[in-house]
Specification:
Blueprint: E1 10-16, E2 33-34, E3 37-38, H1 39-50, E4 57-60, H2 64-71, E5 76-79, H3 86-91, E6 102-107, H4 115-128, E7 132-138, E8 154-158, E9 161-165, E10 179-188, H5 189-196, H6 213-221, E11 225-229, H7 241-249
Parallel strand pairs: 1-4, 1-6, 4-5, 7-11
Antiparallel strand pairs: 2-3, 6-10, 7-10, 8-9
Helix pairs in contact: 1-4
């Protein structure tokens, strides 16, 4: 199956509800300045150029009015009233995704994601007929600029099983793994909504609904998980002023 075969049945959901606490700013994280414009604008340029979704969905929360005013009416907005994790954020978009067959989820603080990466991820997802496709990056180490990935979730592989272990919940041994989850996903929509309700917020230290718990659910179900690897430099995000400075100076 090619992208064009079901373009009207594909939605892109961008997670942009987070606070800028570690940025030491009152602004939402996605509105942090980067190379002359707000961080989320860099990502949206790639999303818009992909042509996959004529009106991508943006999940807003903290200071939502500021984000909506900045981005304008080119996007559809849904509100995450309580910041209860990535799984909860995506669930807030369920009504907006009515009749959708496949959903791409992207974190709004990943400014370097390329148009071709989004299109290639979707192609792999559709052609493999996977229930979910995750994007990962393989690092040689966590030194220099790659230190930005040290708190990313680790990818655990057991045969065809893929498990994403949040850094906060990983063992010391698991933290040595150098393949990380870079928070860019594609889901079969029907499967996503059927299995989201199985996520348990009490299984992790933050008491949040992690989208990544769906990998384990898929493995337990015997459902197909596909993975797609990209260059670590493209996957860089920013949660703090220090990480934002890395992005500003990265070439």
């Amino acid at each position: 199956m090619q992208i064009g075969d079901s373009a009207n049945k594909i939605r892109i959901v961008i997670l942009a509800a987070g606070k800028g606490t570690r940025m030491k700013s009152e602004l939402p994280k996605v509105l942090a300045p980067l190379r002359g414009q707000h961080m989320i604008r860099h990502l949206l340029e790639s999303v818009d150029n992909s042509g996959i979704d004529p009106k991508p969905i943006v999940v807003v929360g903290h200071e939502k009015e500021l984000v909506m005013k900045e981005l304008g009416n080119k996007y559809e907005y849904v509100v995450q009233e309580e910041l209860l994790g990535t799984g909860h954020a995506v669930a807030c978009a369920q009504v907006a995704c009515k009749d959708t067959e496949n959903i791409i989820v992207i974190s709004g603080d990943q400014p370097f994601i390329k148009t071709e990466t989004i299109k290639n991820l979707l192609s792999k997802h559709l052609n493999s007929k996977a229930k979910l496709t995750i994007t990962t990056a393989e690092l040689p180490d966590f030194q220099d600029w790659r230190a930005a990935f040290i708190k990313y979730g680790r990818i655990l592989r057991d045969g065809e099983k893929i498990i994403d272990r949040e850094f906060k919940d990983a063992t010391d041994k698991e933290k040595e793994i150098t393949e990380v989850n870079v928070s860019l996903y594609a889901f079969n929509a029907k499967w996503l909504w059927e299995n989201y309700k199985k996520i348990n917020a009490h299984t992790n230290s933050q008491k949040e609904y992690y989208l990544t718990d769906l990998w384990q659910i898929a493995s337990q179900n015997g459902d197909k998980i596909e993975s797609f690897q990209i260059d670590p430099a493209e996957a860089l995000g920013a949660n703090s002023k220090e990480e934002l400075e890395i992005l500003e100076n990265f070439t």
